[in-house]
Amino acid sequence: LRSSWSRLRSTNLVEWTRDPDFVLSPGESDLDADADGAWTGSAVLGPDENMNIFYTGYNLSQNGRQTILRIKATDRHGSRFQRPAKPITILGEGLTRFEEIDFRDPFVMYNRGEGRYWMLVGTRLSSGPYWSRGCIALLTSPDLEAWTVAPEPLYAPSDVFCPECPELFSLPNGKWYLVYSRFHAPNAGTVY
């Protein structure tokens, strides 16, 4: 469970070198939100053009609660990060629509059309059929500091326990694509 993040570098996208030290490691105290793991997330350049990593912190002693954490680098390449990582601030009434335990796998991107950052989070509705209330929450922010949760899920297919590792992107054809994995569903695997 105590997973960490490594950084790999390449000049040609074929040959890669792993840095000797972890970029992210679990917290040292039982009280840290990531005491039992620095799980999945994403990296994005902030308004200051420095790298930010948003990731899932896991802590067994807090009933396995998953928390979205942010750590900021002092440059755009993530050469050095300011410690410790801090839980994000979430605003809005919509948060009560979602479970506290499964709230993970943040994917952060800048939505140019809206002029805001978007964060997709794999989660579950707080009510409904147990095995099929998995959904993807949408949070938005003007500056990566405070996040407002949308009152309704971005996507709720009613056929998955909890979607994992959601991503959203557009292609030159002008269409947007939502991709995620389902580890427990009638048809487990990656879907879009």
Describe this structure in words.
The chain has a 5-stranded mixed β-sheet, with no helix packed on it. Strands 3-4-5-6 form a 4-stranded antiparallel β-sheet, with no helix packed on it. The protein is mainly beta. The radius of gyration is 17 Å and the shape is globular.
- The global form is globular
Extract low-pLDDT stretches. Answer: none
Beta-strand content bin:
over 45%
**Which class best fits the helix and strand makeup?**
mainly beta
Order of H and E elements: EEEEEEEEEEEEEE
Query: What is the number of strand segments?
Result: 14
Helix content: under 10%
Enumerate how many helices there are, as a single number. 0
Tag the structure with descriptive keywords.
192 residues; mainly beta; five-stranded mixed β-sheet; four-stranded antiparallel β-sheet; 14 strands; globular
Produce a short descriptive summary.
The protein has 192 residues and is mainly beta. The protein has no helices and 14 strands.
List strands and helices in order, with pairings.
Elements: E1 8-9, E2 17-18, E3 38-45, E4 51-59, E5 65-72, E6 86-87, E7 89-91, E8 98-111, E9 116-125, E10 134-141, E11 146-149, E12 164-170, E13 176-182, E14 189-191
Parallel strand pairs: 7-11
Antiparallel strand pairs: 1-2, 3-4, 4-5, 5-6, 8-9, 9-10, 10-11, 12-13, 13-14
